[in-house]
Amino acid sequence: MSYGLVIFAQIAQMFVLMAVGVLLFRTGRMGTAGAKDLGSLLLYVVIPVVIVRSLWTERSEETTAVIVETFFLSLALLVLAIVVSRLVFRRDGLLAFSAAFSNAGFVGIPLVQAALGEGAVIYIVCMIGWLNALQASVGVLMITGDGASVRPRAIATNPIIISFALGLALYAVGAPEPAFVGDVLATIAGLNTPAAMIVCGSYLAQARLRDFSESRGVWAVCGVRLVVVPLLTLLLLAVLPWGHGVVGLALLIAAAAPTGANVAIYAAQYDGDYKTAVLTVCTTTILSIISLPLLISLGAAAL
């Protein structure tokens, strides 16, 4: 089966899980508070465990080279996305945030696992770490326009950044992973896809059909997030001497993912346009069922 078909099949499964979230929210079985709690579980427990688990592996020259390579490549790709988004949305920081930062954790991880195998998550952990650091700094600056809003402590205490540092430390010292611990971590990591999609479904349940047709800015975000940034990412990966093969494909999947759910969290926290933030998450997620398989098929041929 081609990469594009694998991605399509995985996204289809994820949409079924999103439908569960919509149903739970619409029937009152899960409210806004419940969705927020589930999001906190993902942010503070599940995603950090996925990151630690992917880095807690046997040390080798090949793996070290991959970590170093993806560390710098991920930063370059995110800077590219930020610059492009800021150029397109000069007057709207929230839309720039939405276009710049993908859902590399909630969506990227299960897609990479489905297309390239569970061990391939290590190729995108650096991007997830950088993405969260840049959201908490550059992203906050985009939304607020005020440098004083950026809090270094919030960046340093971000659970995903902490888990990335912990995972690197475990890898560096070559710490053995006890079988029992590995089983527990695997069980927790397995919650990522269903929990994340149910949360996305709760966002979708809050949007009205009329909202989608009335928000031109959201459609512009879709074009930048799902088409422009991924194509430029693919072009950069193709011309650079690094990031080819499965490494480049994994990075492309993460970079081409829809808008990250964190935009809604940051919008609520910093008095941004929460409604528009939710719409960008929902619309890009829905349209990604078309864009992602096509882009990944193109990437598989080019990389």
Automatic annotation (TrEMBL):
The keyword Transmembrane helix applies. It is a multi-pass membrane protein. Keywords: Cell membrane, Membrane, Transmembrane, Transmembrane helix, Transport. Its main location: membrane. InterPro entries: Mem_transp_PIN-like, Na+/solute_symporter_sf. Gene3D superfamilies: 1.20.1530.20. It is found in: Cell membrane. The chain crosses the membrane at residues 6-26, 38-56, 71-89, 94-116, 122-143, 155-173, 185-205, 217-240, 246-265, 277-302. Belongs to the auxin efflux carrier (TC 2.A.69) family. This is AEC family transporter. The lineage of its organism: Bacteria, Bacillati, Actinomycetota, Coriobacteriia, Coriobacteriales.
